Amino acid sequence: MKIPSVKYMRDFYPAEMRLRDWIEGNWRSASLRAGFEPWDSPILESLELYKRKSGDEIVGQLYTLTTKGGEELAIRPEMTPSLARMISARQSALPRPIKWFCAARMCRYERGQRGRLREFWQWNIDLLGVPGPAGDAEVISVALDGLEACGLNAEEIEVRINSRSLMAALLEAIGIPAERHAAVYAVTDKRGKIPADALQEMYRELKLGEEPLARLLEVLTCESLEDLGRVTAAMKLQSHQAALTELEDVFRYLDALGKKAYLKFDIGIVRGLAYYTGPVFEIYDRASKLRALCGGGRYDRLLETMGGQAMPAVGFGMGDVVLSELLADLKKLPTLQSGTDFVIVPLEEERVVDALRITGMLRQQGRSAEATAKAGNLGKAFKKANESGAKVVVLVGGREWEQGSVRVKDLQSGTERDLAIDGLVSQLTGQA
Amino acid sequence: MKIPSVKYMRDFYPAEMRLRDWIEGNWRSASLRAGFEPWDSPILESLELYKRKSGDEIVGQLYTLTTKGGEELAIRPEMTPSLARMISARQSALPRPIKWFCAARMCRYERGQRGRLREFWQWNIDLLGVPGPAGDAEVISVALDGLEACGLNAEEIEVRINSRSLMAALLEAIGIPAERHAAVYAVTDKRGKIPADALQEMYRELKLGEEPLARLLEVLTCESLEDLGRVTAAMKLQSHQAALTELEDVFRYLDALGKKAYLKFDIGIVRGLAYYTGPVFEIYDRASKLRALCGGGRYDRLLETMGGQAMPAVGFGMGDVVLSELLADLKKLPTLQSGTDFVIVPLEEERVVDALRITGMLRQQGRSAEATAKAGNLGKAFKKANESGAKVVVLVGGREWEQGSVRVKDLQSGTERDLAIDGLVSQLTGQA
Asked: Are B428 and B419 in contact (CB under 8 A)?
């Protein structure tokens, strides 16, 4: 009787695993190119850590367990609480700025649907200790570098950028007090996800007052920073200027980093999570067919909440699932080959040891090689070698062996030649 | 208030993470060089999967949980049950031989001690569909390739090899019936872990009969295959010849693969797990100071147990913890550098955008580069660049900038020169 796998979690057979490795490799190379360093936390953390950051209601979305020793634990659903915990633990000893990345496995007990699985991998980039817009721009540009490494470009994806500090200043200026901002963000976060009139109704239900509501709805129509400048000038708003200049600098720095074509100011991006404090962003496919590829922003106050010292911080998370779906939709999934460069085929049982000797020497030289386990069966050996992307097949035995040589076939050119057994490996490694 | 991490699990700060990445990279390259393909399973499996393979008593060593949906799950403590499940699910569709590897995270709820943590990584190599000793030799040689990639050699480690089929035939021949073999293996598995006289007492308590016990103890004194040949000839034992020839072939093939210096026949290696059916092996540091680095063997009947078709199989598991300890004991831990090749320093606030432009272009060329976030502070910038292993520092601004150039310092040679801003990036990438 067969035992099934866990629902909404994936088995990675070699074809799927090569794709996951390729995505993680792109994330990793983009991170290292920008000087970010790898880190990781245990897959299990104390349940308290997640309650501290997100409140008790998070528990329903976690895989939780209690050990025989009475520890209440959860499988990590995200990396930020672990990051805050680890940085708090060594905050004074860690050199600044802190530039960390991970490509981390995590689990959430959610309703499964397209783009939302119960186990997934997430690329996290976090930059701590850099307060200004250069930090925000750096983090956004690395996200785009990772997506470019996956073959995506500015015709296919865009970064939608806003700022929580700008929004707070604007709301304040149009007469919405600070204690109502979270409610406004919660509604604004639904933009594009529900019909426009349902959204309007939700804003009205907030009972912000007639004039503030009218101004809010007008501000929310702005489609560019220039629009926003015109509208706020007409309303004679001013106190948001510092936050606006900061956001403009983020755009300016991203332009310098070569990412201008991706950028879009989007006043609807506020991010649901309470802890953001400055610029926020999400990356989408331009066709808007899928959920966000990536989301992040500045969270300057999180470390205090988690028991550390105040420290400026900005970061993002990018999941593997939506990214894979977008690459598939765009027919940009790579063809990833398996198999070794060299396939060594013993023609007779007595040549198995000789085939293994050649195989061992090739590996010793850092080359990939495998010997077929059984002597003979040339047809099968060539078929497998061709399918696996091998470059060279070496036939060990027969008349050639008696004459002190082996038959070598180059699968790309189709040419065959005999090479002397003496010095064979250096001849082979020089060739392919 | 700070929240602690989970007991006996490790936080990977960048220094520790670089080491883990390096070990996994060595495992991966040895696997790919031999034509093994990557795979992975979910971190959670149904609890039933582990009960099926190991019986109900395994549950005490697992992190288990029940979801709100009523699923009984466990965090994987090893990969073999997942491997058997995944291969069973697609057994007829998978091309043979199946050569799979993984470097997988897993958790066990065990008493913490040196070399035994509650979360660790394990390299698994599994080869299915190859029945003979060429398969066993291949798997053992890849384990050694992985350890060689970590810088270990035959003076520091050895493979201790035995065979469960040989042992079964020997026990049978000296008059110990098949149903007592598991008990004999359980005692034999304690060799070297408890005092010799305590071990003798345990054998006596098995009540195997006077003559069989005497013969068993004599056979167990054999320290080489030659010894074994002499002792069994004197006892006139014969029915173990096929299993012996098979084991001799494993040694012969490993010799061909260049691994002779590591090999040691060790009649005390039986492996505790019930499912082994042929050659078995463990790798140890020669000083025998640590637990086994690696253990594995042939398990031809496991797939049937797990709901699949019968299929020859051989594999091993190698953990990261003991390996790291051995490398540390031998002072062979590598020095792994962080940081980018290029550090770009804006000398004035107005040059930040120019510094970012150079940084972006270097990254676009596939080079690693970072700009310091703040203008000026040359001393700090150089100190950090030196510590992080940077190769080149580029100073953007000052008199040089006004003259259309930048000052470039090579940190290895200590030389400085001015390069024109025009064509700067191609000059820089040509240099370092």
From this structure: yes
pLDDT, tens digit, 9 for 90 and up, residues B349-382:
999 999 999 999 999 999 999 999 888 788 888 8
* pLDDT number for residue A115: 66
Asked if B1 contacts A47 with a C-beta cutoff of 8 angstroms, the reply is no
Contact of A118 with A9, CB cutoff 8 Å: yes
* CA atoms of B116 and B108, how far apart (whole Å): 9
Count A/B contacts: CB-CB distance under 8 Å.
Answer: 254
> What is the distance, to the nearest Å, from the Cα of residue B75 to the centroid of all Cα atoms in its chain?
19
Cβ contacts of A230 within 8 Å, gap of 6 or more: none
CB-CB: which of A38, A65, A134 is closest to B65? A65
- The answer to whether the CB atoms of B65 and A67 lie below 8 A apart is no
Residues B432 and B430: their CA atoms lie apart, in Å, by 6
Measured CA to CA, the distance from residue A296 to residue A276 in angstroms comes to: 9
For residue B339, the surrounding DSSP H or E stretch is none
Q: pLDDT tens, A8-29?
A: 999 999 999 999 999 999 999 9
What's the mean pLDDT when you consider all of chain B?
Answer: 94
Whether the link from the prior residue into B334 is cis, omega within 30° of 0, is no
User: In this structure, what token pair is assigned to residue A186?
Assistant: 């919660």
Give me A163's structure tokens.
């700022």
Rg (C-alpha) for chain A, rounded Å, is: 28
Strand partners, B45: B74
Task: List the single residue in B with minimal CA-CA distance to A5.
Answer: B45
Hunting for tokens 């000398």 — which residue is that?
B347
Per the CB < 8 A criterion, the answer to whether A317 and A280 are in contact is: no
**Identity at A173, one-letter amino acid code:** A
User: Angle at Cα B373 formed by Cα A162 and Cα A161, nearest 5°?
Assistant: 10
| Subunit contact B5:A41, Cβ cutoff 8 A | yes
Record: contact B306-A7, CB cut-off 8 A: no
